[in-house]
């Protein structure tokens, strides 16, 4: 195999350029799925793709796909990519490193007249983060025909449905089927992503080879009580939905923290309650549960125990409750043949990348249901991500970034 060295400066400056869209503060970004900022970012990356000669399209899921024709266009494609939508309080590197890194790799190939055996596609998949409509991996699941019923009726905090947000973005949800791939059309999927964790920095390694992605379980819990005057209703007869929720929230944290040696993580990241007045007993609470583990059985055992706590708390506070499921995925492992190539080529560059699992999920989690996948992690500074202080990928870590062909 021979290799070419990417242009690290060009890659880094594109990451910084893209970060100006939806910029918050000095280094923060906010580009929610299917938002005007998301569209502006998609159009900028689309322009960059076209400038290097890729054939581009924005499909009806809101995905941006750039294609480099291969010597044998009848072969399944090698897909590489990630996402450029972000969390509402995000950094500049989560997702963008994977899309712009893929773009840089293809540009380096084109500049060196390398024609890939099979066509290659760079995907900037829509709504990977799942913040706005409470379910992630939308665009990557969409092209695989894996969307569940009701997906288009999901509402954001303003009550806008995903359907209307997509139409505003310029998509026609009625045309989803024509944007789907037959599963045998994709040979494999590769994703470059920031680690969003401490391992590479602690080992002094610039990159890591991902062994697998934790299986996320996302639930939304709704508790219903009864509003009343906080001064006059005695404690024994209250139906305080927020007091009921508090017990469940701390229980999730306690259960997930029980064994610090495990990769179990549990988070309540979003909570809304009504009527939200100092002197009215909260009548309704809705909050999210994000429970993950590379060990699915262990995760499901914690889920069972948590549901028990919900039932006890509901009984104690005389509430009613509803639990809806947004995401339930088993952990998905990278395949050996791709990891082997990554290892050999890294060693050839004088690197010794550790293998590590990913607690965060990625578009690779969706893609892995239909094809082999591999992921490379780029080191994160101070384990920070989903935070404007996220920092990765300084030029000095990547002087030798290469495209192996
Ligand atoms: O939540 C995640 O793990 C990913 O960042 N969307
Ligand atoms: Mn990401
Ligand atoms: Mn993320
Ligand atoms: Mn991702």
Quick synopsis:
The chain is of the alpha+beta class.
Helix content: 25-40%
Strand content: 15-25%
Tell me about the largest β-sheet. Answer: 9 strands, mixed
Number of domains: 2
- The SS-based structural class is alpha+beta
Work out the helix count.
10
CATH topology of the largest domain: Aminopeptidase
Bound molecules: (2S)-amino(hydroxy)ethanoic acid, manganese (II) ion
CATH class of the largest domain: Alpha Beta
Task: Examine the secondary-structure arrangement and name the CATH architecture of the largest domain.
Answer: 3-Layer(aba) Sandwich
Could you tell me the number of beta strands?
A: 18
* Full CATH superfamily name of the largest domain: Zn peptidases
- Name the assembly state: single chain
> Residue-averaged pLDDT, rounded?
95
Shape type:
globular
Separation of termini? Answer: 6 Å
Order of helices and strands: EHEEHEEEHEHHEHEEHEEEHEEHEHEE
Give the tags:
405 residues, single chain, Alpha-Beta Plaits, binds (2S)-amino(hydroxy)ethanoic acid, Aminopeptidase, binds manganese (II) ion, alpha+beta, globular
Secondary structure topology:
Layout: E1 3-5, H1 8-18, E2 23-24, E3 28-29, H2 36-51, E4 55-58, E5 64-68, E6 77-83, H3 96-111, E7 120-125, H4 138-143, H5 162-169, E8 186-194, H6 199-203, E9 207-213, E10 215-224, H7 241-257, E11 265-267, E12 271-274, E13 284-293, H8 296-316, E14 320-328, E15 332-333, H9 336-348, E16 355-358, H10 363-367, E17 372-378, E18 402-404
Parallel strand pairs: 6-7, 6-8, 8-17, 9-16
Antiparallel strand pairs: 1-18, 2-3, 4-5, 5-7, 9-15, 9-17, 10-13, 10-14, 11-13, 12-13
Bound molecules: (2S)-amino(hydroxy)ethanoic acid (HGY) and manganese (II) ion (3 copies).
Subunit structure: Homodimer.
Domain Peptidase M20 dimerisation: 238-316
Cofactor: Mn(2+)
């Amino acid at each position: 195999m021979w290799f070419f060295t990417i242009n690290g400066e060009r890659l880094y400056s594109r990451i910084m350029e893209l970060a100006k869209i939806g910029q918050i503060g000095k280094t923060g970004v906010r580009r929610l799925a299917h938002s005007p900022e998301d569209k502006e970012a998609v159009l900028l990356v689309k322009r960059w793709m076209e400038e290097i000669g890729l054939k581009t399209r924005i499909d009806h899921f809101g995905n941006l796909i750039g294609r480099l024709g291969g010597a044998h266009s009848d072969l399944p494609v090698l897909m590489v990519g990630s996402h450029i939508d972000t969390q509402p309080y995000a950094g500049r590197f989560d997702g963008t490193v994977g899309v712009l890194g893929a773009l840089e790799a293809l540009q380096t190939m084109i500049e060196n007249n390398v024609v890939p055996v099979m066509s290659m596609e760079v995907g900037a998949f829509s709504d990977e983060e799942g913040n706005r409509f409470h379910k992630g991996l939308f665009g990557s699941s969409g092209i695989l025909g894996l969307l569940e019923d009701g997906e288009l009726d999901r509402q954001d905090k303003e009550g806008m449905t995903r359907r209307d947000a997509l139409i505003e973005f310029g998509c026609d949800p009625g045309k989803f089927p024509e944007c789907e791939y037959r599963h045998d059309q994709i040979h494999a999927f590769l994703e470059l992503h920031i680690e969003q964790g401490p391992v590479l920095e602690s080992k002094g390694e610039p990159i890591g080879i991902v062994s697998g992605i934790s299986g996320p379980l996302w639930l939304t819990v709704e508790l219903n009580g009864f509003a009343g005057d906080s001064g006059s209703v005695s404690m024994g007869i209250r139906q305080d939905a927020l007091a009921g929720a508090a017990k469940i929230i701390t229980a999730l944290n306690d259960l997930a923290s029980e064994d610090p040696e495990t990769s179990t993580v549990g988070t309540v990241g979003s909570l809304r309650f009504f009527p939200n007045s100092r002197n009215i007993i909260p009548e309704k609470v809705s909050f999210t549960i994000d429970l993950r583990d590379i060990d699915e059985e262990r995760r499901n055992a914690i889920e069972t125990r948590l549901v028990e706590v919900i039932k006890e708390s509901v009984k104690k506070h005389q509430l009613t409750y509803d639990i809806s499921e947004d995401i339930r995925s088993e952990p998905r492992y990278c395949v050996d043949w791709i990891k082997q190539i990554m290892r050999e080529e890294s060693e050839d560059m004088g690197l010794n990348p550790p293998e590590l699992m990913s607690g965060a999920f990625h578009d690779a989690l969706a893609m892995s249901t239909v094809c082999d996948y591999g992921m490379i992690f780029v080191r994160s500074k101070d384990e920070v991500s989903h935070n404007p202080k996220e920092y990765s990928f300084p030029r000095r870590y990547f002087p030798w970034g290469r495209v192996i062909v």
